Amino acid sequence: MLRVEELVKRYRTGDVALRGVSFNVEAGEIIGLIGPSGAGKSTLIRCVNRLVEPTSGRIWLGDLELTALKKSGLRKARRRIGMIFQEYALVERLSVMENVLSGRLGFTPFWQSYLRRFPQTDIDRAFDVLDRVGLIDQVDKRADALSGGQRQRVGIARALVQEPEILLIDEPTASLDPKTSRQVMRLITELCRERQLAAIVNIHDVALAQMFLPRIVGLRAGQIVYDGRGDAMSSTVLTRIYGEEDWAKSSSLASDPEDAEDDLPPTPPMADATVRAVVR
Amino acid sequence: MTMDANASTMAEPAPRRWQQPKLIEATWLRWAITVAVLLYLALALGSIDANWTRVIEGIGRAGQLFAGFLTPDFLSRWGDIQVGIIESLTMTVTSTVAGVLLSVPIGLGAARNIAPLWLYALCRAIIAISRTFQEVIIAIFFVAMFGFGPFAGFLTLSFATIGFLAKLLADEIEEIDPAQVEAVRATGAGFWQVIDYAVSTQVMPRLIGLTLYRVDINFRESAVIGIVGAGGIGATLNTALDRYEFDSAAAILMLIIVIVMSMEYMSSFFRKWIQ
């Protein structure tokens, strides 16, 4: 469904973020992308909808080669790709409804969107997804008046209202507390199952990834170093992804400086992780 | 001393003293700096070459002016004053509106995070020219081009508004949160939709605030540029002073003060109200 071939991204500063990454995502499949900060996770998913221009390599969405698209073709393709962000990236001064409706901008002519006269079908869609994520009572609240968990639900609603075929999800839980993180991850995986949505989820928290995501791709220094089942990850695999020196000195991922910003609960030794991984 | 020592042995601790730390630790240096500053001040004052006889004459004239202030005469030149005030207010409103209409596109063009380099350079150049010249100089230029009167004043203030508003707007746009822009772009929105949803929402309160602020600046400036012939209440004031009609001049100054103060009050009220 999504095919990435030999993707390379070299930034103008000379930093190479991706060095030939290839993988496939099947329809309805959710994959977790893990790896240390700077491994190229964010760059990778931003290359898919070309918020970041890849240097070389190709990406197909179904039969459409995304990397070959010009401006208006790209805009049409972006409508098929929903995106959810780390710090929600809501338009703070707009209402919840306007934020959700902004997911329909790619389908709406400028003047209609400027006057906020969206077609009735779009408004119905927006109410439906808001109901689904549990925010039907907050429709006219301003986005900056919501809590973190609520904001991320608006972010999810905005992506869903596009009726996309695939979701790109960038660190959906990094700004949330552990409990809300789990709720948000559960919501995302449920929604993907309900709607047969494929998804790529960038995620810092290995335990959370194993808990919710069946397939995990490990990225290190711009290259894929692991691609397989989440519950089959051993400590050697994690060493390959995160590096020896960070890894060997403790059994807890939380001590990894890369993860300092997360509210990670202490992770048990990896031998146990395989046992816990099949929660959902 | 012994009292303190005794007190402290009797369970009551001695009062501990504290002084604000000195900015400059060394006492001698503190004094040296103070003396040097005073010495320089004395020398500087001594170097001013004051013509005391002229000052005494001036005091007499100032007395007349202040006497005029005590008896402001709104009536004998009321016709001129009224025309001048209306002209100034018209200039203020029209030039602010025109200035804002021009500033928004120029401000967008001058924001590096939206505009391509050539447009950025062009818009920043326009802003730089507008900011380089003080209103009075621009007014002299436009008066020479279009003759005396409020039209030159209108052009001056519109042009000056660009330098102020477009620059501050562009700077504000350059500091918006890029994540919101990215998110709206990712939905497949077009350029103007991104501007509408992700950029203008972030800068709008600031734009409104700056516009209101500019209204009262433009009124004040309209009084100044009138003196070089660009119409408005400034022209009326200039005429009154030339004729030594200090009582009429006083009336004009009072009106200017009242209008400026009420505008400032209103604009600060509105700026607090939006957010």
Q: Into which percent range does the helicity of residues of chain B fall? A: over 70%
Strand content of chain A: 15-25%
Average of the residue pLDDT scores of chain A: 84
Structural class of chain B: mainly alpha
Order of helices and strands of chain A: EEEHEEHEHHHHEHEHEEHHH
Question: Major sheet of chain A, described briefly?
Answer: 6 strands, mixed
The first-to-last residue Cα distance of chain A is 24 Å
User: Oligomerization state of this entry?
Assistant: heterodimer
Q: What order do the strands of the largest sheet of chain A run in, or round the barrel if closed?
A: 6-7-8-3-9-10
Query: Which chains have the largest interface?
Result: A-B, 32 and 21 residues
Shape of chain B: extended
Mean pLDDT across the residues of chain B is 88
Strand content of chain B: under 5%
Shape of chain A: globular
Low-confidence stretches of chain B: none
Features:
heterodimer; A: 280 residues; alpha/beta; six-stranded mixed beta sheet; four-stranded antiparallel beta sheet; 11 helices; 10 strands; globular; disordered C terminus; B: 275 residues; mainly alpha; 78% helix
Quick structural gist:
The complex is a heterodimer of chains A (280) and B (275). Chain A is of the alpha/beta class.
Q: Would you spell out the secondary-structure blueprint of this structure?
A:
The complex is a heterodimer of chains A (280) and B (275).
Chain A (H helix, E strand, L loop, with lengths): L1 E9 L5 E10 L4 E5 L6 H8 L7 E6 L2 E2 L5 H8 L2 E4 L11 H6 L8 H5 L5 H13 L15 H13 L5 E5 L7 H18 L2 E5 L3 H7 L2 E6 L2 E7 L5 H8 L1 H5 L21 H7 L4
Parallel strand pairs in A: 3-8, 3-9, 6-7, 7-8
Antiparallel strand pairs in A: 1-2, 1-4, 4-5, 9-10
Helix pairs in contact in A: 5-6, 6-7
Chain B lengths: L1 H8 L17 H21 L4 H19 L7 H32 L7 H16 L2 H12 L3 H25 L3 H9 L4 H35 L7 H10 L3 H28 L2
Helix pairs in contact in B: 3-11, 4-7, 4-9, 4-10, 5-7, 6-7, 7-9, 8-9, 9-10, 9-11, 10-11
